[in-house]
Amino acid sequence: MGTRVAIIAILVQNRQASATINEILHEYGEYIIGRMGLPYKSKGVNIISIAVDAPQDKIAALSGKIGALKDVSAKTVYSDF
User: Fold this and answer.
1) CA distance to 44, 68, 78, per residue, from 64 (Å)
2) Is pLDDT above 90 for 12?
3) How many Å apart are CA 19 and CA 31, to the nearest integer?
4) Residue from 3, 2, 9, 12 nearest 77 by CA
5) Could you give the CA distance from residue 40 to residue 46 in angstroms, rounded to a whole number?
């Protein structure tokens, strides 16, 4: 199965979810190209972007697990290649 490059955008409004998010990201670490996190304290949200190169089902599973957490949103943008 081929891989695709994608970006997963994550908005975290519940800081208690951070530990669970990190556990999930560690589980999929072999697919992660890079990660950037930005705390936006005045709005009470943390913004995380994850660049991945993985089979589409792995990307969807990663995004789905993170997006299912309370007060956490995740959306994925896929490359065409």
Assistant:
1) 23, 6, 14
2) yes
3) 19
4) 9
5) 6
Q: What is the mean pLDDT of residues 44-71?
A: 97
Residue corresponding to tokens 């299912």 = 68
Q: What is the dihedral of CA 16, 12, 19, 41, to 10 degrees?
A: -70
Q: pLDDT tens across 20-40, in order?
A: 999 999 999 999 999 999 999
pLDDT tens-digit series, residues 70-81: 999 999 999 987
Pick the CATH number of 4-78 from 3.40.50.10260, 3.30.70.1150, 1.10.287.3510, 1.10.3720.10: 3.30.70.1150
Rg of the chain over Cα atoms, rounded to whole angstroms, equals 12
